[in-house]
């Protein structure tokens, strides 16, 4: 998606060979007008699929998932939590997820009330690197007997392999910008 | 706001005398159509104010703040983080915030790049109880020299006193639903 790639080049900050920091428009500070354009594009890419619920993971998936849920005319949006607060008293599904940026494993959870066997889920996240978060969310859906209809990331770091692994397993995965590699401080997108 | 109060009564779960769980529509599972109505109402309540940036705190403030930022035609939305991930390398402002539901003190942070002395800020959060999160966010703004134009919570738990304290200090605080007390498992709203 061209406007996204241009924005990543313009405002993204390359750190080393594997991190692209986009917190001036995608995390921390959000350009919601850009988000709206991304939401429309995600809706377009899954227009042939029947979807009844959006699933994401806290924190940075929530804003883009909100915009997508609105774009679908108001689908329920569920986000998995990384910690269990004292008010989360329901039975929940859980799965381990390793954070690439934080280097820690957390348990992600979602209340059993919010994933049903009848659900047809579109999973959304901001970044796709090794695929850990996606696999965690897929696991939550499987535990609930819900069907994973599609996966979508805003930015896929192709060189970290998670996306290719998911596609090889037959998932319909879309990424709005695919970073092939980071070379000499420059971002190279997949053609 | 009547539709919100009705929804809290219909779907909220009262726990003890001070917790109202609304995670079927406001946290964890989000009714984004309701959020859109809330966003319009927040925009209406601050229509006489000049605002150039929305500030919230992760996690549960992000979705409502996203909708409000869109309602304003696309204002920049900044969210304070509760933990410092390895990619957050900038200098940041920080303030301690005690979480009512989790019972822990965390440091909230925002990169110095995203709060400026010229900013006129509307602070948004989902719940207002003792006011800890609001005071933390106000502190971040003060450190940056930014002006806090208004504060808005979706649900204020009036009996926990944070809202009255903030109003007494002269802040323009709006809350879309004000819970006066929880009595015998029933929610009583402020008239």
UniProtKB/TrEMBL annotation, chains A, B:
<comment type="pathway">
    <text>Purine metabolism; XMP biosynthesis via salvage pathway; XMP from xanthine: step 1/1.</text>
</comment>
<dbReference type="InterPro" id="IPR000836">
    <property type="entry name" value="PRTase_dom"/>
</dbReference>
<feature type="domain" description="Phosphoribosyltransferase">
    <location>
        <begin position="29"/>
        <end position="157"/>
    </location>
</feature>
<comment type="subunit">
    <text>Homodimer.</text>
</comment>
<protein>
    <recommendedName>
        <fullName>Xanthine phosphoribosyltransferase</fullName>
        <ecNumber>2.4.2.22</ecNumber>
    </recommendedName>
</protein>
<dbReference type="InterPro" id="IPR050118">
    <property type="entry name" value="Pur/Pyrimidine_PRTase"/>
</dbReference>
<feature type="binding site">
    <location>
        <position position="157"/>
    </location>
    <ligand>
        <name>xanthine</name>
    </ligand>
</feature>
<dbReference type="GO" id="GO:0046110">
    <property type="term" value="P:xanthine metabolic process"/>
</dbReference>
<keyword id="KW-0963">Cytoplasm</keyword>
<comment type="function">
    <text>Converts the preformed base xanthine, a product of nucleic acid breakdown, to xanthosine 5'-monophosphate (XMP), so it can be reused for RNA or DNA synthesis.</text>
</comment>
<dbReference type="GO" id="GO:0000310">
    <property type="term" value="F:xanthine phosphoribosyltransferase activity"/>
</dbReference>
<feature type="binding site">
    <location>
        <position position="27"/>
    </location>
    <ligand>
        <name>xanthine</name>
    </ligand>
</feature>
<comment type="similarity">
    <text>Belongs to the purine/pyrimidine phosphoribosyltransferase family. Xpt subfamily.</text>
</comment>
<keyword id="KW-0660">Purine salvage</keyword>
<keyword id="KW-0808">Transferase</keyword>
<dbReference type="InterPro" id="IPR029057">
    <property type="entry name" value="PRTase-like"/>
</dbReference>
<dbReference type="InterPro" id="IPR010079">
    <property type="entry name" value="Xanthine_PRibTrfase"/>
</dbReference>
<keyword id="KW-0328">Glycosyltransferase</keyword>
<dbReference type="Pfam" id="PF00156">
    <property type="entry name" value="Pribosyltran"/>
</dbReference>
<dbReference type="GO" id="GO:0006166">
    <property type="term" value="P:purine ribonucleoside salvage"/>
</dbReference>
<dbReference type="GO" id="GO:0005737">
    <property type="term" value="C:cytoplasm"/>
</dbReference>
<feature type="binding site">
    <location>
        <begin position="129"/>
        <end position="133"/>
    </location>
    <ligand>
        <name>5-phospho-alpha-D-ribose 1-diphosphate</name>
    </ligand>
</feature>
<dbReference type="GO" id="GO:0032265">
    <property type="term" value="P:XMP salvage"/>
</dbReference>
């Amino acid at each position: 998606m061209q406007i996204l790639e241009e924005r990543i080049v313009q405002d993204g900050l390359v750190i080393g060979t594997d991190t692209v920091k986009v917190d001036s428009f995608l995390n921390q500070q959000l350009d919601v007008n850009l988000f709206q354009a991304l939401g429309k594009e995600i809706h377009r890419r899954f227009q042939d699929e029947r979807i009844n619920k959006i699933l994401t993971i806290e924190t940075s998936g929530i804003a883009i998932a909100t915009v997508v849920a609105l774009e679908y005319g108001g689908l329920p949006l569920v986000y998995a939590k990384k910690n269990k607060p004292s008010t989360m008293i329901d039975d929940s599904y859980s799965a381990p997820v390793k954070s690439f940026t934080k280097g820690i494993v957390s348990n992600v959870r979602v209340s059993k009330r919010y994933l049903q066997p009848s659900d047809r889920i579109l999973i959304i996240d901001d970044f796709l690197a090794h695929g850990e978060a996606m696999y965690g969310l897929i696991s939550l859906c499987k535990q609930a007997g819900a069907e994973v209809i599609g996966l979508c990331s805003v930015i896929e770091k192709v060189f970290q392999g998670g996306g290719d692994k998911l596609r090889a397993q037959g998932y319909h995965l879309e990424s709005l910008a695919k970073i092939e590699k980071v070379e000499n401080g420059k971002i190279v997108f997949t053609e």
